[in-house]
Specification:
Blueprint (H helix, E strand, L loop, with lengths): L1 H23 L2 H4 L1 E5 L3 E8 L11 H25 L4 H24 L2 E6 L13 H16 L12
Antiparallel strand pairs: 1-2, 2-3
Helix pairs in contact: 1-4, 3-4, 4-5
């Protein structure tokens, strides 16, 4: 249940932030907005590929492949957590990852691309890339699973 609520909260935060910034503030039309320069700007980017726009050359095929891969990974993580006894932090990490992955799946289904808008720069380094709440969640969730997931095969739950 812990994983479900973490996934739900992340999914809602991701989708609400995208609706508020991309459509509410009309970032899709204006393209760029200073929030706290240079640390935080909103920079609109429709990502049709994977990280940093990789593999975006055949966008329609890549779109469907990424949807299927994201859903397969989501199902695998969900099943892994359901079948094993994992610490609370691992369950939360899994939920965070799943919520982020599903947020980006919804974007690909609804818009054909992932809506990225967060851009952060610092200390003389100008970051040319944009990301979103789902991207942060996927990274944090994956890191949390690496750090907190138990790897004891004797703790596998027996399922009928």
């Amino acid at each position: 249940m812990r994983m479900f609520w973490a996934a739900f909260v992340i999914f809602v935060l991701d989708q609400v932030s995208k609706l508020a910034v991309v459509f509410g503030l009309n970032l899709r039309e204006i393209g760029y907005m200073d929030v706290w320069p240079p640390y935080l700007t909103f920079r609109m980017a429709w990502n049709k590929g994977v990280n940093f726009g990789l593999f975006a050359h055949d966008a329609e095929a890549v779109r469907w492949v990424l949807i299927v891969v994201s859903l397969a990974i989501t199902a695998w993580v969900w099943r892994w957590m359901a079948r094993t006894q994992q610490p609370k932090n691992a369950q939360l990490s899994a939920g965070i990852l799943v919520g982020g992955a599903l947020g980006n799946v919804v974007d690909r289904l609804a818009y054909g691309a992932v809506a990225d808008f967060l851009n952060m720069s610092c200390c003389g380094f100008e970051n040319p890339y944009a990301f979103n709440v789902a991207d942060i969640a996927i990274f944090v969730g994956a890191a949390g699973l690496v750090l907190f997931a138990a790897n004891d095969k004797s703790k596998v739950r027996k399922t009928p």
